[in-house]
User: What shape does this take?
Amino acid sequence: MLEVPVYNTDGKKIDTFQVDEASLGSQVNVDLLKQAVVAYHANRRQGTVKTKGRGEVAYSTRKLYRQKGTGNARRGAQSTNLLRGGGHAFAKRPRDFRKALPRKMRQAALRSAILAKILGQDLCIVQGLAAEAPKTKTMAALLKNLEINRSCLLALKDRDANLYLSSRNIPDLTVRVAGELNAYDVATRQKMVVTPDAMQALCSREDA
Assistant: This one.
């Protein structure tokens, strides 16, 4: 069993949360986690780039001047990629960068990412986290009490508009709902803060 520290909003450790490492895959699958991060990163690419090739630029195919006798370099049509305004030699085309990642692989990658955070002591649980009104000062004070000054992921059980509005102006702080987390969100942040209900949901989640 793994022990995850539980803090209050003042940054004081008040308890520990027991996590069965078997529910998170027992060990970190580094290869799968790398594959998942690459897939999520690739799926964010638009791939809408487009440049014109030599056959697409609006120029005549007439030879600019005769082959010999002018003293100039040999030239063909003005659409050559060697001249300004000509077509690209290797024109870029729209393409799909998406990589398929089956559901069970996404589940296993998320579990490995969470397990890696626990083993690296980069995950903690905060009890009593709430915001009666949107106040960035409240969330900044929480991070200061927890001594978090790097990129951080805050996982909540349900959507909370006040907590979201209190966090959006803080650099490198990302708020996610536990049911929407993926391996990319967890792996690309240095620290992870979760509520007790969110931790329960993550340990029993099956639809990553």
User: Anything to note?
Assistant: The beta strands are 2-7, 13-19, 123-126, 152-156, 173-177, 191-194. The chain has six helices and six strands. The helical segments are 30-43, 103-119, 136-145, 161-167, 183-187, 196-203.
